[in-house]
Amino acid sequence: MHVKAVVAREPAAGPNWAFEDVTIGPPADDEVLVKITATGICHTDILLSSIPSGGPFGMGYPKVLGHEGAGIVQETGKNVTKVVVGDKVLLSYYSCSNCARCRSSRPMYCTQFNLENYAGRKGPVVCKDSNEEIWTRFFGQSSFAEYSIVAEASVVKVTGLLQSDEELNLFAPLGCGFQTGMGAVLNVADPGPEDVVMVMGMGAVGMAALMTAKIRNCRTIVAVDRFDNRLELAKSLGATHTINTMVPDFGFQDAVREISPTGVSAVIDTTGAGKLIEEAVESLAPLGKMVHIASPPPGYKLSLDITQLFANGKTITGCIEGNCLPSESIPQMVQWYREGRFPIDKLVTYYPAVDFAKALAHMHDGSTLKPVLTWA
Ligand SMILES: [Zn+2]
Ligand SMILES: [Zn+2]
Question: Is-cis flag, bond preceding 62, omega within 30?
């Protein structure tokens, strides 16, 4: 079967993606053939395809990325039990189901996580013209394609959750970006009504964190960014205060103390910006929690005064995929969306898949928060 796909090749100055024809075969016993209708673009797609071959994650090219897929099941391997042909599905991360962490409901820390989700597997998908083997099963799904062979472990059935076909496309990013921000608040920071929550970086992940802090009725919710348009949007979604780090003579601690003289209960960092992270740790109130969900530049090491940790009971932690189990987090986010409390329709912009370069440019200049490529 020949299908269109966005194929990433060895990065040059950044990601090196092209729209190409690839050839895919039938699903293996524990795989599903999915007709992809939409795929969200997440920063991880860009970050990982900027890393040359090899490296810490064993990246290989050519590669089909895409890990926020949505689509319809076309064919199932003989051991597949979660879905049947015709089911509508969202795609999320892969886990092995067998290791100790998978068995204790912590599949986001599966021993195979990095290998299977970031590196994926080589072949049997090939480039149509050159017959080169392609690295696929990125996050178990490689969903930047019209059709993809997906690991059963990555599939979440949503047939019964949808009210229209359009919703399938809208919900595509629930499988990674939105659940990461949501879970960082709900499962890790775990704030209450008296807490001051600060979200740094108001992209799609940050907005999901912010909406969840509002769902938790947090007293003060501070949005931090360098784009005014994003801060305005953050206000409309529940931020009680905003901080623009690009104002002249910006001072982080002064800006925070002006909003909350006693400091911040929890910080969710989606920026990975070292300087901001160090300032944010300092701004934590006693018993405050710093939650990392973004990668800092390679090799960055946090410079830290340990005294402020033990003297104030501060915690520094991080999480993968918001510590979410997609089979639980996706229905939860859909329910909040229906209640008007998780309005992701305000964050998503659609692009025909062939226009992926425009989507990347708009993500880069801050004009689009969450681009979703459509394949239909
Ligand atoms: Zn596992
Ligand atoms: Zn992602």
Answer: yes
Biggest CA pair distance of the chain: 63
Task: Please check whether residue 110 is in contact with residue 96, taking contact to mean a CB–CB distance below 8 angstroms.
Answer: yes
Please return the burial class of 117, using the count of CB atoms within 10 Å of its CB with bins 0-12, 13-18 and 19+.
Answer: buried
Tens-level pLDDT at each residue, the chain (376 residues): 999 999 999 998 889 999 999 999 999 999 999 999 999 999 999 999 999 998 888 899 999 999 999 999 999 999 999 999 999 999 999 999 999 999 999 999 999 999 999 999 998 999 999 999 999 999 999 999 999 999 999 999 999 999 999 999 999 999 999 999 999 999 999 999 999 999 999 999 999 999 999 999 999 999 999 999 999 999 999 999 999 999 999 999 999 999 999 999 999 999 999 999 999 999 999 999 999 999 888 788 988 889 989 999 999 999 999 999 999 999 999 999 999 999 999 999 999 999 999 999 999 988 899 999 999 7
* Helix, strand or coil, per DSSP, at residue 189: helix
The tokens for 214 are 């509002």
* 101 Cα: distance to centroid of ligand 1 (angstroms): 6
Please tell me the number of the ligand nearest to residue 176's CA.
2
Q: DSSP of 245-310, one letter per residue? A: TTSTT--HHHHHHHH-TT-EEEEEE-S--HHHHHHHHHHEEEEEEEEE-SPPSTT------HHHHH
Helix, strand, or coil (residue 224)? strand
Contact indicator for 92, 326 with CB cutoff of 8 Å: yes
Half-sphere exposure of 4 (CA within 13 A, CB side): 14
Q: Ligand 1 centre and the CA of 69: distance in Å?
A: 21
Domains of the chain: 2-175+343-374 (3.90.180.10), 178-322 (3.40.50.720)
208 in Cβ contact with 232 (< 8 Å): no
Phi and psi (nearest 5°) for 51? -95, 130
Q: Of the ligands numbered here, which is closest to the C-alpha atom of 270?
A: 2
Would strands 220-225 and 241-244 be described as parallel, antiparallel, or unpaired?
parallel
Under DSSP, is residue 373 helix (H, G, I), strand (E, B) or coil?
Answer: strand
State which residues have CB under 5 angstroms from ligand 1, the bound ion: 95-96, 99, 102, 110
What is the Cα–Cα distance from 309 to 313, expressed in whole angstroms? 5
**How far is Cα 206 from Cα 303, in angstroms, rounded to an integer?**
24
